[in-house]
Amino acid sequence: MPLVPQNRRSASASGPPSLLTLPAAALRARLREGYGFREFQKDLLAGVVVGIVALPLAMALAIAVGVPPQYGLYTAVVAGFLAALLGGSRTQVTGPTAAFIVILAPIYAKFGMAGLLMSGLLGGVILFIMGIARMGKFIEFVPYPVTTGFTAGIATVIATLQVKDVFGLALPFAPEHYHERLHAYWLARGTVSWWEFGIAAVTLAILVLFPKFVTRRLPAPLVAIPFAAVLAWFLKRHVPGFDVATVGSRFSTVVDGVVVHGIPRLPPMPLWPPLTPGPGGAPLDLSDFTVWRQMLPGAFAVAMLGAIESLLSAVVADGMAQTKHDPDAELLGQGVANIVCPFFGGIPATGAIARTATNIRFGALSPVAAMVHAVTILAAILALAPLVAYLPMAALAGLLLLVAWNMAEVKHFVHIVRTAPRADVAVLLACFSLTVVFDMVVSVTVGFILAAILFMKRMAELTQYGFIQGAEPAQTGVLPPGVLVYSINGPLFFGAAERAMGALGDIADGAKAVVFRLKNVPAIDATGLVAMESALGRLKKRGILAVLAAVPRATAATMLRAGIRREPGKVAYVASVEEGIRIAGDFASGLAPIPRESVDKVAHGQTQILHGRETDIYDDPRR
Predict the structure, then answer these.
(1) Residues 447, 145: contact at Cβ < 8 Å?
(2) Shortest CA distance to 81 belongs to which of 349, 357, 381, 301?
(3) Are 72 and 186 in the same domain?
(4) 8 A C-beta contact, residue 610 and residue 512
(5) How many CA atoms lie within 13 A of 204 on its CB side?
(6) Which of 270, 296, 381, 393 is most buried, most CB within 10 Å of its CB?
């Protein structure tokens, strides 16, 4: 039997949603539908599997950032549990991700562990504010070429970072920029270890071939990483000269005065982030405003990438599991997770697409599965910590190479380059290049600007304008002498206004009146208003009547607020183009106006009654 009855009122039935509906939105929605022991069994299995899969990934990603591997595990435990509990996606799995490496590695190199933790905390605050401000829908405004470009760029940087451990290179220094890193690799080419390369190659081969030729039911990392560890241990004991770096040889921690190689057998312990080692090993001085100012760009990058990646992952999860996530609740959950995580040594986290897909593939039904994943990793820390020390660094690097390849989606990238419009290809390549050469913040900023400019150009091209022969573009006929009809179709905003109004300079000397056909102008902005006022001013100087015909209500209201009102003999508003042509013809011929009943004054888009019917237009031009 379900644990929770299903006859609850929906949020829509009880009124608009409030902030109280955001925390744990996905979990509460699943419980309302009914959740029993059978559903828990499926979540338990999925959570255990994805937890085991996430174990080597969390360590490898932490190592790629530059921190000891246990901090990646702590991130998966704390952030994974809280984001699932409080978030808006039913099947999303949160933890350290490959996309964060290019942001976090420079932060750690510059500010140390303290700066890394504080950047994650500040990023969490930004995410939390975005959630309660209902900004989750804004992800729809991120252009696809921008996300594809910087994702492929991030994948390229991640793959490049693994060259050091794949080949066992001994670097004299840790380069910060991409081209410097490539140069350092070239200088260290004489230190290549073919043993390291062999372990990485074997790991990568199993990761690629196991799902194709053996089974997809068992995640390949569960086979590849333990096999690489056993292989390295066996060769170390039986092959003279064999030596590869392992987690135990690379990392160590002092616990109660005892040096522990690998990761300590301890759960995430509370700590105060500013007191962890900062630049030069000293704690951060949070009383210095300069420190905050230096950390804010990194925190903003963490928040923006965290929002983009978690919401994109949630969309992918919806498509796979046929569910519907709450983007605002998801941002709130990610925010809380990243706020709390640094107080337990966790680095920034976000939704992980690959782990989420694994979670769904193994039957996850609710956020309980992701919470089980976090508990599974915690249990592995407490039970298997000594064995982690035997994992070869080259094997973890091979795993990240596959992650980078899947993340890059090379075939899809090439397909876009070959088939997309040239403007979109330019944005894609710009974002890719800037991510590799500089960083994601520069890439996304420039990508947004380029995409916005291209969008404005395309929208401006959609606005059509010109003189026509009759009341409608499809009609032909003879207009009264001295009367012209000027049609504008599309929004009159800054991308098109100057060109549309500038074309009025072609009016012949014999014109007495111009009817503006504006019924297909849904909006007008400040630039359009200025251009319209300028055009009307030029017509006034030449004694030409301007008849604004069939103006939509919203557009008319904007024009009236800007001061474009009826002026007898100069500017008129009328109900239809046909009416405008008749009035313009009367004006051009010098005939007396036909008497009309004048009712409400025109003011700020008020409705008038003209000829016994309700309209959005106004009065005779000469009354």
Answers:
(1) yes
(2) 349
(3) yes
(4) no
(5) 20
(6) 393
Residue with the larger pLDDT of the pair 163 and 604: 163
Tokens of 548: 């604004």
Residue 444 lies in a domain: no
What number of other Cβ atoms are within 10 A of residue 170's Cβ? Answer: 11
User: What is the residue range of 293's domain?
Assistant: 34-422
What is the distance between the alpha carbons of residues 336 and 333, in angstroms, rounded to a whole number?
5
Q: What is the rounded CA–CA span in Å between residue 445 and residue 435?
A: 11
Residue 506 corresponds to which tokens in the numbers above?
């072609």
Reference 357, options 343, 368, 369; nearest CA is 369
CB 539 within 8 A of CB 511: no
CA distance 101 to 155: 10
Residues 267 and 158 in one domain: yes
pLDDT digits (tens, 9 = 90+) for 256-312: 788 888 899 999 999 999 889 888 778 887 778 888 888 898 899 899 889 988 998
Of 422, 451, 484, the position where a domain reaches its end is: 422
Domain count, the chain: 2
Residues facing 260 on adjacent strands: 253
Q: Rounded to an integer, what distance in angstroms lies between the CA atom of residue 344 and that of residue 381?
A: 14
Alpha-carbon distance of 255 to 261, in angstroms, equals: 10
d(CA 425, CA 444): 15
Tell me the CA distances in angstroms from 274 to 147, 337, 346, one per residue in order: 33, 18, 13
Give the DSSP H/E element, type plus range, for residue 371: helix 367-388
- Of 358, 392, 422, the one marking the end of a domain is 422
The 10s digit of each residue's pLDDT in 307-364 is: 988 998 898 889 888 889 999 999 999 999 999 999 999 999 999 988 998 899 889 9
Spatial separation of the C-alpha atoms in residues 384 and 252, rounded to whole Å: 16
Closest CA to 387 of 243, 233, 200, 242: 233
What secondary structure letter does DSSP report for 324?
-
CATH number of the domain where residue 524 is located? 3.30.750.24
Which tokens hold the place of 476? 């032909």
**Confidence at residue 469, expressed as pLDDT on a 0 to 100 scale:** 65
As a whole number of Å, the CA-based R_g of the chain is 32
| pLDDT number for residue 42 | 94
Q: Same structural domain for residues 388 and 494? A: no
Q: Which DSSP string corresponds to 446-470?
A: HHHHHHHHHHHHHHHHH-EEEEESS
**Rounded CA separation 492/522 (Å):** 8
